[in-house]
Specification:
By secondary structure, this protein is mainly beta. The chain contains two helices and ten strands, in the order βββββαβββββα.
Length: about 170
């Protein structure tokens, strides 16, 4: 296992805040905890405070992700998943939760509400061009890979396109 990078954390609401915590060695996600009770009516979206702010090093981003158990058992998910915390942000990390169920959901102080995943990212600069290079997928978007095995004709078309690219 690698040595963890240290991320400075400030507790905005010192009494109720809990530091993000990885439940198991090697986990990428660190649990985020509610700093106050919140009621989420069915079909509604609310901002849940965590009581913590973080100082990410330059070149890193934190992503606020849904907890799989909360999503499966209670149908409560991070609405803007993943929520992005940029390295320059120093305010409180909030979690935008959406209740997809048909019943009210109550978040209690100290409940695990999301996971925070910290990762380096690649800086890019977008370069305007007149055309893009061809790929096997091309402009086929949503549903382009379907849910079943590709047909022989799809495989033949892909092979022909790749052969033409060489």
């Amino acid at each position: 296992m690698t040595t963890p990078h240290l991320i400075n954390v400030d507790t905005v609401t010192a009494q109720e805040a809990r530091l993000p915590f990885a439940a198991h060695p090697g986990d990428a996600g660190h649990d985020l905890f509610a700093a106050s009770p919140v009621t989420i009516p069915a079909g509604r979206t609310v901002l849940v405070p965590t009581g913590v702010s973080i100082a990410l090093p330059d070149g890193y981003v934190a992503m606020v992700c849904s907890r799989s158990g909360l999503a499966l058992k209670s149908q409560v998910v991070v609405a803007n998943a993943p929520g992005i915390v940029d390295a320059g942000y120093r305010g409180e990390v909030g979690v935008i939760l959406h209740n997809q169920s048909d019943t009210t959901f109550t978040v209690n102080t100290g409940d695990k509400i999301a996971q925070l995943v910290v990762t380096p990212y690649v800086r890019v600069q977008f370069n305007p061009v007149d055309t893009l290079d061809d790929t096997v997928r091309g402009q086929r978007g949503f549903g382009s890979s379907d849910v079943s095995d590709p047909t022989v004709s799809d495989q033949s078309a892909a092979a022909a396109l790749l052969a033409g690219a060489n």
